[in-house]
Amino acid sequence: MNRSTIAIAKRWGYHGIDALKKASPGYFMIMGFFALLTLIGAVVGVHGMITGYHHVYNVSREISWGILISAYVFCVVTSTGLCIISSIGHVFGGEAFMPIAKRAVFMSIIFILGGFCIIFFDIENPFRMAIYNVISPNLSSNMWWMGTLYGAYLVFMIIEYYFLLEQNHSLSRLMGFFGLVVGIAAHSNLGAVFGMLHGRPFWYGPYLPIYFIFSAGMSGGCAILFVTTLAWKINPSIMNLRMERAMKAVCQVTIFLISTIIFFTIWKIVTGMVSHDKSLVIMSMINGDYSVNFWVFDIFFGMVLPLFLLFLSRGTNYNMILWATGLMMIGIFFMRYDIVIPGQMVSVYHALGVEEGLEIIKYKPSFHEIMATLFGLSFIGFAYLAGEKMLNGHQLEKHEIVPEGGYICPGCGAIHFMQEGESEQDAMKRQHNIW
Amino acid sequence: MNFLKIDLERLKNEGTSTVTSKERRNFLKLGLAITGVYAGGKILSLSSTFGVAHASGTDFVEKYPYNPHYSMVIRQSLCIDCEKCVDACNKTNHVPKYGYRTRILTRKYQGQLDKKVEFIPVLCNHCNDAPCVRACPTKATYKDAVTGIVRMNSKKCIGCKTCMLACPYDARYFSAERHAVDKCDFCWEERLSKGETQTGCSSACPTGARTFGNLTDPNNIVFKLVHQLEESVWVLRPEDGTKPNIFYMKGNMLSVDNILKGQKFIYSGPSGS
Q1: Is residue B34 part of a domain?
Q2: Residues of A in contact with B131 (CB under 8 A)
């Protein structure tokens, strides 16, 4: 490596492939498992693409969006959520949240890439999308806005991450702000993709765009707690005083957001029960086909148990937080599934009273669909584990080591670098003088 | 300027005994007309006259937005579920086995004296405010500017399937052969553009349940069936506000025959006038 590469590596805290080599055999096995699953998922997905999705996927004319769309929603919700929660710190200046920024932004990029992996195997002609999204845009289509804004979001997040690594707080903050605005616009548009469909009463209305934003916050808080406590299991030294304070703060926000989503869910159910169009779906969740999904995963693992455990942990019992948020991630995956599929299972001709529209339409994901989903999800797992090692737990250096020419900022607690002839105070002014 | 001063509080109630039956009838008619206008939704507003396009669901427009404005009137009672229309459609448009552009729904009744079952043919409604057209990210589906037919530009379709879910009539399916979503185009590609005047389904229908035509032409059967007061005409899912162009009526009454033959009605009141 030449000198400039070494300097970048030092500045970025990049430990390279060497760090991976030093990992324990167990770590390698888990990473290998995810890598293998990613590969198998991709192979099965390509097989489905060649065979024709209509032969291998269980989606139908009526239920056109299956587990792939719900998994995509899961990924982009989590990505947006990571962006929202981490922006409290490095965009809006909430000091306690600052230490989580690097890992959160990194995972936000990984999650959206995972989402794109999954949607690649859902869109029938992904290559046409690249062309006609640009040369034939339909500005009244939420789908167009969602895709375009998420593309812009990814770009902003990558630039923001670069500036975070470069310790350029002004620009990372600016990019973080743009990323947040575009991310929220994209995400509420995703809600509107569902919310603006006539004839789908379970989705129709302003509920979903609003719910998606709050739900993203909840998912983001959960994801940060999960990936940070998991990183703590991998390398306990990532936890320091600043990080401990951040964990407490994220824990509090997550508790608040879970409560909000519980409130949302209660009213969704109660209002749905008195609506003729929605009650069929609501009842299938309460005591029908989707009751296990709803009560066990959405409600218990997704909200009630983590709420209780996070309270109990007081933001300091990391093992408990790890369990709570790990189960919550699974619960949230089901929550997304239970928005996407049930929204389609009542025929548009149900109210007409015809024989063809009386029954609830059934859907079970096929092997190919599950594998294509695992392709994206295991890519996220693999990238996370690789990132923890190669980027040294997303620290600049071990917290007690301050690199040459740097100092710990008394304001934000991060490590800043002084330019030549600059005093520490001048450097701090430069780093934080943004607006 | 002086106004006539009426002290309402001191006025004596005249009661209803002095109101003539003619006045009452006029009042009721007025009420019915207003109800007809505002009821919207289920039944077309029938108080309006010739040439005014109240046909598209609930909203009034001064004239039909397209010319020829293609439309189909389905006379539900004439449908016998022979499925010849479905076969003709599949054959004409090369619809694969797993898909369909049109189908016939069955509604069963219990306790009715005249009928136990009713058949309802459904197809793309070629809505004036088509939700599928709004939802498509790449304008692969669009309203034909001349005819108002909702058509597909298959090469632009990315296969996101949003249009399939946006359609409140379940009129779309993904065709693996076309690598695009496929739907009814009123046989534009296979018949109308080649000079034919009927769609595959309407020409195959042995009972005349499906009548296809041009809403802007006062001599067209479709125009006559929609612009009459005697039988109610409705559209499916009017609450979605999509302004569909497929109209439904029972269509088995003598009055419809009269209309089609150009006969006027003769009413006989109590006085024999």
Answers
A1: no
A2: 197-199
Are residues A199 and B168, on separate chains, in Cβ contact within 8 Å? yes
Cα–Cα dist A208/A202, whole Å:
10
In whole angstroms, give the CA distance from residue B39 to residue A157: 52
| Cα B172–Cα A212–Cα A347 angle in degrees, nearest 5 | 30
pLDDT tens sequence across B93-141:
999 999 999 999 999 998 888 888 999 999 999 998 899 999 999 999 9
Tell me if B137 and A133 make a contact (CB, 8 A cut-off).
yes
Report whether pLDDT(A219) > 70.
yes
Binned at pLDDT 50, 70 and 90, residue B273 comes out as: very low
R_g of chain A, CA atoms, integer Å: 23
> Do the chains contact at A132 and B138, CB–CB below 8 Å?
yes
**Given pLDDT bands bounded at 50, 70 and 90, which one contains residue A76?**
very high
| Cα of A382 to nearest chain B Cα, Å | 28
The average pLDDT across A155-172 equals 84
Q: Is residue B39 part of a domain?
A: no
Query: Residue B258 and residue B264: Cα distance in Å, rounded?
Result: 7
Judge: B162–A193 Cβ closer than 8 Å, yes or no. Answer: yes
pLDDT score, position A341 = 92
What pLDDT score does A433 carry? 63
ipTM, interface predicted TM-score of the complex: 0.82
Q: Is residue B31 part of a domain?
A: no
Distance, in Å, from the CA atom of A393 to the CA atom of A386, rounded to the nearest integer, reads 10
Model pLDDT, residue B47 = 36
Question: Are A286 and A368 found together in one domain?
Answer: yes
**Residue A9 sits in a domain of what CATH number?**
1.20.1630.10
Q: Is residue B12 part of a domain?
A: no
Q: A339 and A424 share a domain?
A: no
Put simply, the answer to whether A128 touches B156 (Cβ < 8 Å) is: yes
**How many CB pairs below 8 A link A and B?**
130
Residues 6+ apart with CB under 8 A from A136: B138, B139, B140, B156
Q: What is the mean pLDDT of chain A?
A: 86
Q: For A144, name the nearest residue in chain B, comparing CA atoms only.
A: B137
The answer on A254 and A125 residing in a single domain is: yes
Q: Please name the member of B158, B161, B167 whose beta carbon is closest to the beta carbon of A129.
A: B158
Strand partners, B73: B211, B247
The answer to whether the Cα torsion of B171, A209, A364, A57 is positive or negative is positive
Interface-testing mutation among A61, A72, A150, A359, with chain B (most B C-beta atoms within 10 A): A61
Total domains in the fold of chain B: 1
Tell me the shortest Cα–Cα distance from A69 to chain B, in angstroms.
10
What secondary structure does DSSP assign to chain B, as a single string?
-------GGGPPP--STTS-HHHHHHHHHHHHHHHHHHH-TTS---S--TT-B--STT--BSS-SSSS-EEEEEEGGG-----HHHHHHHHHHT--TT--S-EEEEEE-SS-SS-SEEEEEE-----TT-HHHHH-TTS-EEE-TTT--EEE-GGG-----HHHHH-TT--EEEETTTTEEEE--TTTTTTGGGT-SS-HHHHH-SSS-EEEEETT-TTSHHHHHHS-SSS--B-S-GGG----SEEEE---SHHHHHHHTTPPP----TT--
Residue A313 and residue A302: Cα distance in Å, rounded?
A: 17
Residue A109, domain extent: 3-401
Poorest-pLDDT segment among A57-71, A262-276, B92-106, B252-266: B252-266
Write out pLDDT tens, residues B198-248: 999 999 988 888 999 988 888 888 888 888 777 888 899 888 888 899 999
Predicted pLDDT of residue B272: 43
Q: What is the pLDDT of residue B263?
A: 60
Contact B120 A352 (CB under 8 A): yes
Tell me what percent of the residues of chain B surpass a pLDDT of 70.
73
Token output for A132: 């006609």
